[in-house]
Amino acid sequence: MPLASRSYSYGLRDLTVAFAFTISVKLVVTSVICIPVYRSIHETFVPVSFCPKRKAVPISQSPLLQLRIHHHLVNPTTVATYNLKVNGKIRRVDVDPATPLLWVLRDHLDLSGTKYGCGVAQCGACTVHLDGTAVRSCQLPVSVVGKGAVTTIEGLAATAGSASLHPVQKAWLDHDVAQCGYCQAGQIMSAASLLNTTPNPSDADIEAAMSSNICRCGTYLRIKDAIKSAAKK
Ligand code: FES
Ligand code: FES
């Protein structure tokens, strides 16, 4: 066949086969190589050390997965009933067991003081207490809370026997800590948890306890002063 006629010999069928082959190769590479590599990287950098029941916590809760969890809230496929102890009261919720506690508090119990920041246990905005210990509620599935006592910023004052403010909250006001305020509920919950276990923390104790609470406004120095002041009361 002359060279000139050969160059026109690729028909629609050939192009379709080539396209299908390319897509198949990409699918195989993505599923066999990319997804396992992504998961191993993600699992390396998403710690679950803030969860007291770490074995029960799924370690790959990406923002994409959280969108899927939201989808389940709207179109529930699996729903279980939980009687959670939140701020001293038993609250019943019917939710997907994988739902992070953060969304149960905010979307089902209207406790919106707990904030969503990163969704991957890196910023501390979602910090609440479980039996007095600071945990990242964005990484704590509701199914692992069990009979634990959950305290949010709304119920913190009551844990100190106050109807208005916890000593840490008072110190925050005295030192005029907050700027935009978005991170501050989480900062206060972490600080209160620190003082529960270490009533007179050193600078190093404060830095260690607060190092994973991020403040984009840079209020760290005032936070440290406020914690020291709360510790003296
Ligand atoms: S939202 Fe939970 S740590 Fe950032
Ligand atoms: S006060 Fe704005 S993020 Fe902390």
Automatic annotation (TrEMBL):
UniProt keyword annotation of Hydrolase present: no
Signal sequence bounds: none
Domain of life per record: Bacteria
Enzyme class: oxidoreductase
Enzyme Commission identifier(s): 1.3.99.16
Keyword Transmembrane helix: yes
Transmembrane segments: 15-38
InterPro entries: 2Fe-2S-bd (IPR002888), 2Fe-2S-bd_dom_sf (IPR036884), 2Fe-2S_ferredoxin-like_sf (IPR036010), 2Fe-2S_ferredoxin-type (IPR001041), 2Fe2S_fd_BS (IPR006058), Beta-grasp_dom_sf (IPR012675), Diverse_Oxidoreductases (IPR051452)
GO MF annotations in UniProt: 2 iron, 2 sulfur cluster binding; isoquinoline 1-oxidoreductase activity; metal ion binding
Record keywords, A-Z: 2Fe-2S, Iron, Iron-sulfur, Membrane, Metal-binding, Oxidoreductase, Transmembrane, Transmembrane helix
Record domain 2Fe-2S ferredoxin-type: where: 80-156
Pfam families: Fer2, Fer2_2
Name of this chain's protein: Isoquinoline 1-oxidoreductase, alpha subunit
Lineage: Bacteria, Pseudomonadati, Bacteroidota, Cytophagia, Cytophagales
Gene that encodes it: iorA5
